[in-house]
Structures are given as C-alpha cells and as structure tokens.
Design a protein that fits this description.
CATH class of the largest domain: Alpha Beta
Strand content: 15-25%
Number of helices: 15
Number of strands: 15
Helix content: 40-55%
Strand order of the largest sheet: 1-2-4-3-5
CATH topology of the largest domain: Rossmann fold
CATH superfamily of the largest domain: Leucine Dehydrogenase, chain A, domain 1
CATH architecture of the largest domain: 3-Layer(aba) Sandwich
C-alpha cells in the first residue's frame, strides 16, 4: 500500500482504538484505492486523506423516555454527519442494542461513497440509538422517538441532513419522527425519507434496497454472459431488504432458498414461492414474530442457531447485519460452489471472509454498490418533496434500474484489469474520486 496511505491508516487506528468496525471500513477503502492514489498524486495534497476519514460532526445525546410501567428509561442517541462535499448529509437511523459510535462512523463513512455512486447530490451520514424496539408497545416507541427527535431536530433539515430508516426504524418510526419534527420546527419539509405515502413518501421506497440488489445482480450476470433464471440464491435476514430481494428474485425467475433471523434459518428446498413469501411477510411485518414460528410444511426446514451459508447454491446475498460472513463461512460458500456474492447489508463480510472470496475468484459486489438502491430512492423522494409531486411506481422503478446500471458501469470502468473486474476496487475508486474532487474544489474545510 502507498506509504502515505499507510500513515493515514496508522493514524486512524491510533485515534480510534476502540472502533474496530470503523477501522475495518477505512482500511478496506484505503487498500483498494492505493494504486489509484499512487497514479493520481494530486489526492495526496492539502491533507485530503486525513480529512476524508474524519467525520465533519458527531452528536451524542441522551434520550430519556417513560416505559409502560411509568419508569424512566435512558438511551444514547447519535448522529454522525460524515461528509457534505457533494450534498446534504444523507443516511439512515438505526435503533438496535448494538449501536455504538464505531458502527455509526463506519456506516457514515461507507454512506459517503455509496451516495456518491448513485449520481445524486447527497453527502454521507448515519445515526441512531442503542434503543431496542423489539417487545415495545407502539406507545413506548412513540414516546422514545419523540424524545429522540427533540435533540435530533436541532441538527437536521431538508438542505442540511436528511435521515432515513435502517435496522429497527421503519415507516412507523419515521412517521413519529416526522410528526415531532414538524411540531418542533413548524414546517412541512422533506427532512426525512422513508415516509408514508400520506405525507410525502415515495412509491418503491420500501422495496428499493432489495429490488436494487437484484437489479445489480442482473447487471453483473449479464456482464459475465449469464442469466438470473434458475439461479439458486441464499438470502440472509428477514427484514425489508431480504424479503424484497426475494420478491424480485422470484419475479425474475431465480430460486430464493432461505431467510434467517438471529435464532436460525428457514430453508425452502424447492425455493420460496410468492404465496410462501406473503406468509413470511405476515409473520415478520404484521405479527413481528420469529421464523421458528413459521408453519411446518413439506420441503421446509427450520435450522436452529444456523446461518444460511452451509446450503449449496449459486449466489449468496447477505442482507442481515455487518460481519455476518466469517472466514469459515466464506470457505463454506466457496466449497459449495457459490460463485457470486452481493452484499445487501452494510459490510456483512469480514475482512478475512472477503480475502477468501478474492483468492478464490468469487465475484463480490460490496454493499456500498449493491445496496445503494435504498438511498437512491430516498434521493428521488427528496426530489419529489422539493417539487411537491408524487411519481408513479413505474417511473421510480425505472429510475432505480437506471441508477443501479450506472453504478455497475462505474465499477467496471474503474475496476477492470484485463478481463477481470474487481468490483470492490471499482466502487471505492468511483466513489472516492467524486467526493475527493468536490473536497479539493472547496478548499481546506
């Protein structure tokens, strides 16, 4: 790796000693762009690299709220505004017990380059809380969200920072946030995305990340002169991303074999049908149940305490959470002849797992590219809000397909050596170049 990049990475490690996820994300980007930086030395000037790995602002605040028993609970709230070189900060809010500063800094850093890849003028940010929404009543969630919004509202705005949803933050939570923001600021603006259709939301937003992953997959397969029809696909997770990935896979003729949650995996030996998918949606979205509760049917196996990666397939799409594919999981996937891995979640593959894929010539598309569909449609929602318009499902879906195709083109252009395409390198160089050029044009800020 370039000597200067090595020095920057050493400094990141020293300055952030207890933030492994953030260090992992920075290292992955710096290693993959090293050769490009060595050939384009202008990016070594004016402390650009030191600035690009440091968030512009970080807010940490307490969130007091009252539970169903009248007891005061206190959680931590965060907003990391990482980079605004090409537009207002944009990135989701995550409510989950594992949320900490390292995870949000890594997500904000990744979001900066992901947003750049979309071609939309959006900066990078991320936020959330260590609040656990599972098992909470609607009233408890509303009280927590309204308290969270009181502090968050001081730092966001339609042209400043536009949060969206992420793990633990869906349409219900965004609705409560939007209502409280509107009440506090006395304005109706496109300050949050992922809103309901009754108050400025966009069609396709719910499906966008999952659909976008599959649109990316079709572009990748087409590049290698293959078709999606008949491909056997492992999908982890059972939230929006996973289930709408499966919906689009079914529509395009692939066989989705699995869904999973933190307790285990459901394996559909003959593939998930539209009817079975609707049953899973009912269980997860309406009843908020566990996959272990799914009715036992012929050809369906529940595998307790296991991820999907032991099952033979052609393609793997991890859609659950960061670092869910370990080195051993990656070796298992390789041994089971999986040839394509697309990240539906953010950084779901460990560094060691990625090395296994790289050494075995697995086609690997990183999350900042593969799952960019969600933020892409969030950007389209912002455009509709600005214009006071609502676009048709077909119009938004067409734009999403175009954005994912353009991201694939950028990766091929920036990551091809001979006949080999390094999608990680291509995504990181394309995203870095756009952000870095904007930062250089704006001076040392």
């Amino acid at each position: 790796m370039n000597k200067y990049l090595t020095e920057v990475l050493v400094k990141v490690r020293l300055d952030n000693p207890h933030e492994p996820e953030f260090i992992q994300a920075v290292e992955e980007v710096l290693v993959s762009i090293s050769e490009f930086i060595s050939d384009n030395t202008k990016y070594l000037e004016n402390g650009l690299l030191e600035r690009i790995v440091e968030p512009e602002k970080v807010f940490l605040f307490r969130v007091p709220w009252i539970d169903r028993d009248g007891k005061v609970q206190v959680n931590k709230g965060y907003r990391v505004q990482f980079n605004s070189a090409i537009g207002p900060y944009k990135g989701g809010l995550r409510f989950h017990p594992t949320v900490n500063l390292s995870i949000l800094k890594f997500l904000g850093f990744e979001q900066t380059f992901k947003n750049a890849l979309t071609g939309l003028n959006l900066g990078g940010g991320k936020g959330g809380s260590n609040f656990d929404p599972s098992g909470k009543t609607d009233d408890e969630i509303m009280r927590f969200v309204q308290s969270f919004a009181i502090e968050l509202s001081k730092h966001i705005g339609a042209n400043i920072d536009v949060p969206a949803g992420d793990i633990g933050v869906g349409g219900r939570e965004i609705g409560f946030l939007f209502g409280q923001y509107k009440r506090l600021r006395d304005e109706f603006s496109g300050v949050l995305t992922g809103k309901g259709l009754t108050h400025g939301g966009s069609l396709v937003r719910t499906e966008a990340t999952g659909y976008g992953v599959v649109y990316m997959l079709t572009n990748v397969l087409e590049h290698f002169e293959e078709t999606i029809v008949g491909k056997r696909v492992l999908v982890s997770g059972s939230g929006n991303v996973a289930l709408y990935t499966i919906e689009k896979l079914i529509e395009l003729g692939a066989k989705a074999l699995t869904v999973s949650d933190s307790k285990g995996t459901l394996y559909f030996k003959n593939g998930i049908t539209k009817e079975l998918l609707e049953e899973i949606k009912e269980l997860k979205f309406v009843k908020r149940g566990r996959l272990s509760e799914f009715k036992n049917k012929t050809g369906i196996e529940y595998i307790e305490s296991k991820s999907p990666w032991d099952i033979k397939a052609d393609i793997a799409i991890p859609c659950a959470t960061e670092n869910e594919i370990s080195e051993e999981d990656a070796k298992t996937l390789v041994n089971n002849n999986v040839r394509y891995v697309l990240e539906g979640a953010n950084m779901p593959t460990t560094s060691e797992g990625y090395e296994v894929f790289r050494k075995n010539n697995i086609v690997f598309v990183p999350g900042k590219a593969a799952n960019a569909g969600g933020v892409a449609v969030s950007g389209l929602e912002m455009a509709q809000n600005s214009q006071r318009e609502s676009w048709s499902f077909e119009n938004v879906d067409m734009k999403l397909k175009s954005i994912m195709k353009n991201i694939h083109t950028q990766m091929v252009e920036n990551g091809t050596t001979g006949s080999n395409v390094d999608y990680v390198k291509g995504a990181n160089i394309a995203g870095f170049r756009k952000v870095a050029d904007a930062m250089m044009a704006q001076g040392v800020v």
